[in-house]
Amino acid sequence: MSVDLLLAIAAFGIGIVVGLTGMGGGALMTPMLVLFFDVPPLTAVSSDLVASAVMKPVGSVVHLRRGTVHLGLVKWLSVGSIPAAFSGVVIARSLGGGEDVQNVIRIALGIALLLSAAGLIVRAYIRLVEHARRRDGRADPLPQGRPRVALRPLPIVVVGIAGGIVVGMTSVGSGSLIIIALMTLYPRLKASELVGTDLVQAVPLVASAALGHIIFGDFQLAITTSLLVGCIPGVWLGAHLSARASGGLVRRALAFVLLASALKLLNVSTTDTGVILLVVAIFAPVLWMFVRRRHGFPALASRGGGAHR
Asked: The dihedral of CA 117, 122, 124, 125: what is its sign?
């Protein structure tokens, strides 16, 4: 089976971002396939999900061994997400055939990317506020051991259903949208607990969506193979670079790329896209510096500033 070298190289670059930040896999891979390699949206979603189903368990094993996973949260999220992810594929297919379904997937993907970009901003703001509260003594410090959480099955299942449908239709959300919901429901969880729990719950979620796309989607083994050949070493390299790179800077760049991809997928003209991105590039850093000063931090984060960057 031939490997598309250019596609593998692009997947390698995205793998580095995933290794650095723990997010951005489907949110970058699928639009890359659609926008730069002219892969039909449904084929891109199908191939990316099957590739993710192969890669997700690797990181999950590491977090399970470290004890940074709340299996109770994983269980209730999976109750909602597994059937919802499979249903998301069926919903996408039921909306039409041929060009119709491709347009629906393209629009859904664009909306999901906008939500992911917004989610990154919300995640950064929540971390900033929590850091300020702990600094000022207005909040209890995060527990050093494994924190206890009071399971609330209903909202967790609802989050799983919503996340599963989005992932099933677009391949986006297993590592971005759901983790934002977990941060909101359980703000006392440490970052490692959030990432570990989110990564493990994504394994059955993505597997269910991948199975649905193999049966009902437009899965192409050659594309998936090329993605895996590039992405696996990229993730490994990114994970080793993560200790030296500014996670905050990478996440901000990721949000900018997600916004640009979303605008193009939603058929915004090149001129309008350029204007929007220019406005964001100029004013977003200024606004973030104002928010930091508002919470008592220097406008520019020093290197090693941690999660509040």
From this structure: positive
Tokens encoding 231: 């992405």
Amino acid at 59: G
Does any domain span residue 96? yes
pTM of the predicted model as reported, rounded to 2 decimal places: 0.77
Q: What is the pLDDT of residue 204?
A: 93
Q: Domain for residue 104, yes or no?
A: yes
137's tokens: 């003594």
Surface-to-core class of residue 4, CB atoms within 10 Å of its CB (0-12 exposed, 13-18 middle, 19+ buried)? middle
Whether the CB-CB separation of 172 and 26 falls below 8 Å is answered with yes
Residue 302 amino acid letter: S
* Confidence at residue 7, expressed as pLDDT on a 0 to 100 scale: 94
Query: CA–CA distance from 302 to each of 55, 164, 249, 309 (Å)?
Result: 34, 38, 11, 8
In this structure, the chain runs to a length of: 309
Specify if 59 maps to a domain.
Answer: yes
